[in-house]
């Protein structure tokens, strides 16, 4: 009798435990593996908003970029500085650059004879070296020179340099002009040199990006460059004829007001007047 009661109790307990187990919620399934989204970073972009379809001037054996400002004599060096200040006076129109206009005109007036002689010497050099076609070659060089200084992505750093150079230009004695020109040209080119280095870093970063994220582009990629004779537009064809009529320097107002012209123009050839020629602005400007 006692054994029967104990067996009954065991049975009841077993049934109760089984019923309790049946009522429990089963454990949740393991969480799914975390899927990390595949993110492709954007391709590097050229510095200063420049075009990606460009090539930078190569380095020469002297370690300098082979730009239009290489291999110049003292007079040509000053002339290239003059062209840079002309571009700056016409193109740097922000208030902090307003003095460029009067500085440029003062520079021309103080050094009129020196600049006229420099221009005549440069023309004579082209005549000796190029023969009857010297004028076209000279005009093309002047156009390329103005295009070089007019590279719009570097407008602000170029203007920053030019406004400092112009302040020194108006107080430099004419007899010290050659030394001033050599130093000023290097300073004016600094934004361009910095750009070349930044562009090379961009090209390296772009090559690495292509290898990792776009191997088909890495296979098809070609070298990209900027104009070695002028940093704007396409490459200049050395055999192409010059423009129909080279423009003379735009008139710069006598006041410190910003000039109304927005695009620089090549310096006039010797037949179009002296390099310090000033054209009076129309009434009301």
Q: What this model shows, in words?
A:
The structure is a single chain. The protein has 285 residues and is mostly helical. The chain is 51% helix and 0% strand. The protein has helices at residues 2-23, 74-91, 99-110, 112-130, 134-149, 155-169, 177-213, 215-220. Helix 2 crosses helix 6. Mean pLDDT is 77; it is low at 223-285.
Helix and strand sequence: HHHHHHHH
Query: What is the first-to-last residue Cα distance?
Result: 129 Å
Based on CA inertia axes, which overall geometry fits?
elongated
Number of helices: 8
* Poorly predicted sequence stretches spanning 5 or more consecutive residues: 223-285
SS class: mainly alpha
Helix content: 40-55%
- Report the sheet-strand fraction: under 5%
Any idea what the radius of gyration is? 36 Å
Summarize model confidence as the mean pLDDT: 77
Beta strands, count: 0
Largest sheet: none
């Amino acid at each position: 009798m006692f054994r029967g009661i104990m067996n009954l109790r065991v049975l009841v307990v077993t049934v109760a435990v089984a019923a309790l187990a049946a009522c429990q919620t089963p454990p949740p399934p393991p969480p799914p593996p975390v899927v990390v989204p595949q993110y492709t970073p954007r391709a590097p972009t050229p510095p200063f908003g420049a075009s990606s379809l460009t090539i930078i001037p190569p380095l020469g054996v002297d370690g300098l970029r082979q730009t239009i400002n290489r291999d110049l004599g003292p007079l040509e060096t000053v002339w290239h500085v003059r062209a840079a200040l002309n571009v700056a006076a016409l193109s740097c129109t922000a208030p902090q650059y307003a003095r460029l206009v009067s500085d440029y005109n003062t520079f021309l007036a103080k050094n009129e004879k020196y600049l006229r002689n420099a221009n005549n010497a440069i023309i004579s050099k082209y005549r000796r070296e190029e023969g009857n076609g010297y004028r076209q070659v000279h005009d093309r060089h002047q156009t390329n020179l103005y295009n070089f200084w007019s590279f719009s992505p570097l407008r602000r750093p170029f203007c920053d340099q030019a406004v400092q150079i112009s302040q020194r230009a108006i107080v430099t004695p004419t007899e010290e002009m050659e030394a001033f020109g050599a130093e000023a040209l290097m300073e004016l080119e600094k934004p361009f040199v910095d750009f070349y280095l930044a562009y090379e870093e961009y090209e390296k970063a772009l090559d690495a990006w292509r290898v990792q994220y776009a191997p088909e582009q890495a296979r098809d990629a070609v070298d990209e460059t900027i104009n070695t004779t002028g940093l704007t537009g396409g490459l200049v064809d050395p055999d192409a004829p010059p423009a129909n009529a080279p423009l003379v320097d735009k008139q710069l107002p006598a006041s410190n007001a910003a000039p109304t012209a927005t695009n620089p123009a090549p310096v006039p050839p010797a037949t179009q007047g002296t390099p310090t020629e000033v054209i009076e602005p129309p009434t009301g400007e």
